[in-house]
Amino acid sequence: MPQPNSAPPLALALAPELLVLAPRYREPRHRAAPSPAPAPPRRGARETRGARGTLASYRRLFATPGARAFTAGNLVARLPMGMFSVSAVIMIAGEYGSYALAGAVTATGLAATALVAPFTARLVDRHGQARIAVPATVLAVLGSLALLLCVRHHAPAWTLFAAYAATATTPNTGGMSRARWAHLHRGDPAALHTANAFEQAVDELCFMVGPVLAAFLCAALFPEAGTLAGAVLLLTGVLVFAAQRATEPPVAPRTGTAGTPLRAPGMPALLVVFLATGAVFGSMEVVTLAYVDGPAAGALLALQAAGSCAAGLAYGSLAVPGGDARRRLLGCLAAMTALMALPLLSAAGTGSLLALGGSLLLAGMATAPTMVTGMTLVQRVTPAAQLNEGMTLAVTALLGGIAAGSAAGGWTVEHLGAATGYGVPVSAAALALALALAAGTGMTKARLP
């Protein structure tokens, strides 16, 4: 997909997903009974009630038996998701001298993923995570290695499309991790809220670290290093994750009437909201790359991801907010629409990169709470036996939105200017809000206790 100034199409590299270190200590299972004598000081004794909301929630989350083990494997597997597209662009453009070819190859992979990922997730729901994720990952890794060899030997262009399309079998590791949390904390909305926030923070960290790591490996070692490292990390992480059978959700018995999660009440409305939200991410990245047109663009995009990551962790440490989840989603979308206007004002006003960086940091703070609430709604409306498929459909909608947002942002920059391009993310956020409002009662069944 063409982008302004021949910038690599990084917006196609959604994936969602990188390394967050879990706290290394546990909250005591039993609290000491009140006593007139002061209790001996313990680690964390200085925590106030406010601090308890920021640390204790995550300590409780990872005190769950087996949680740290499956999280470690999943994090290793998710890191390459932010590396593959960037590595492919650098590798293909360097060998073939064409960003257009590189963009077309990665766009083909995105389209293939949108078609194959829900089917892979359906198999996971029917047969279990370990039985499907491992062979699906092996196929995807073979596709990455085939792409590497094709580029290395300057094979015909059509082989690049075929090889990269084969990577579409990569399982939705983030969705499988969320499914494990949903299984471990069923009936505990507070813990599930914290888990969803943690997973979203992982996604945001992937945006910051994955592309940077890929670019560094390709530049410091050899052009194929990013793809090779990503393939090794993906396979290793999935093998470790799949080995944690104690936390794997059991395969739910399927009834003869079970169909696609698309038919679940509220799911179509949620998917169109995710589609518009994805356009916010895709357009923001392309417009920023065009506006800055230099190495500082990566740092500014990292600021946006950092703001989202910090807001996600803080949001997850709170108790489950009051009211139903649909109204919370509306509030998050309204906040995102308002904050996305800040980069537009900065670019059209002062033009200062410092001001733009601050506005992107603030704008990013609205995205994680929106995604956390949206994914929570997806979990609520999706039947338990189809949870992986439902969450993968949400990710697929985001991918489609990112592609559309990238195209819209690129067209706007080319025809109306880079500063005006920041109006596209604002418009996409406003569209997501309008779609959620128009859904009306379509999501009212997705209430949290």
Automatic annotation (TrEMBL):
Annotated transmembrane regions: 75-93, 100-120, 132-151, 268-291, 297-317, 329-348, 354-378, 390-413, 419-439
InterPro entries linked: MFS, MFS_trans_sf
Keyword Nucleotide-binding on entry: no
Keywords in alphabetical order: Membrane, Transmembrane, Transmembrane helix
Keyword Magnesium assigned: no
Organism: Streptomyces lavendulocolor
Species lineage: Bacteria, Bacillati, Actinomycetota, Actinomycetes, Kitasatosporales
Protein name: MFS transporter
Pfam families per UniProt: MFS_1 (PF07690)
UniProt region (Disordered), positions on chain: 25-50
